[in-house]
Write a structure and sequence with these properties.
By secondary structure, this protein is of the alpha+beta class. It has two domains: 17-51; 59-161, Sandwich (Immunoglobulin-like). The protein contains three helices and seven strands; from the N terminus they run H-H-H-E-E-E-E-E-E-E. The strands form two sheets. The chain has a four-stranded antiparallel beta sheet, with no helix packed on it. A three-stranded antiparallel beta sheet has the order 3-4-5, with no helix packed on it. Strand 4 and strand 5 form a beta hairpin. The longest helix is centred in the N-terminal third of the chain and has 19 residues, at 22-40. It is flat and about 85 Å long. 5% of the residues are buried.
Length: 174
């Protein structure tokens, strides 16, 4: 029999968070790449060079799906959506099957010319929100209005859906 010498010191390694979670490691690498572009190259910034922000970083142009409130009374449903800066020509309200769809698009274009520089920026954003319509909606009487950046879609109920609620008495079983 051959004897194999045993090392007096054993080393155990516990996996680090980066090696135990490949998605976290990927996220860390991506963060480092983007950090380099955000100033790691020590290049002059857009603001310092032109006195403006790049189109995607302007604080005045962030666009996502609008905040929406849906309410109901005895006569109608009302969908209210905040759409600041949009005009009625940039908003589309449609019904297809049992879906009410709100679509919108916002465009921002800016051009500055000066003796020493020229800046042209474009930014676009769009959204789409869909809502399931109840059977009680009278589809022929739906209306939409835009006032002060708020879109209001009125969904009147059919006559039979507007009947007063009837309370049913609950009796104890024998």
């Amino acid at each position: 029999m051959v004897e194999v010498p045993v090392a007096a010191k054993t080393e155990t390694r516990t996996p680090t968070r980066a090696t135990s979670d490949p998605f976290r490691a990927l996220r860390g690498e991506m963060d480092r790449v983007f950090d380099r572009f955000a100033g790691g190259f020590h290049l002059p910034s857009w603001r310092g060079m032109f006195g403006v922000e790049p189109a995607g970083q302007q604080s005045g142009f962030s666009f996502s799906a609008p905040a929406v409130d849906v309410t109901e009374d005895e006569k109608a449903y009302k969908v209210t959506a905040e759409m600041p800066g949009l005009e009625e020509k940039n908003i589309e309200v449609t019904i297809a099957g049992d879906l009410l769809t709100l679509k919108g698009e916002k465009r921002h274009e800016k051009e500055e010319k000066d003796k020493n520089h020229y800046v042209s920026e474009r930014a676009y954003g769009s959204f789409q929100r869909c809502f399931a319509l109840p059977d009680s909606v009278d589809r022929d009487k739906i209306s939409a209005d835009l006032a002060k950046g708020v879109l209001t879609v009125m969904l009147p109920k059919k006559a039979e859906a507007q009947k007063p609620e009837k309370k049913i008495e609950v009796k104890a079983a024998a």
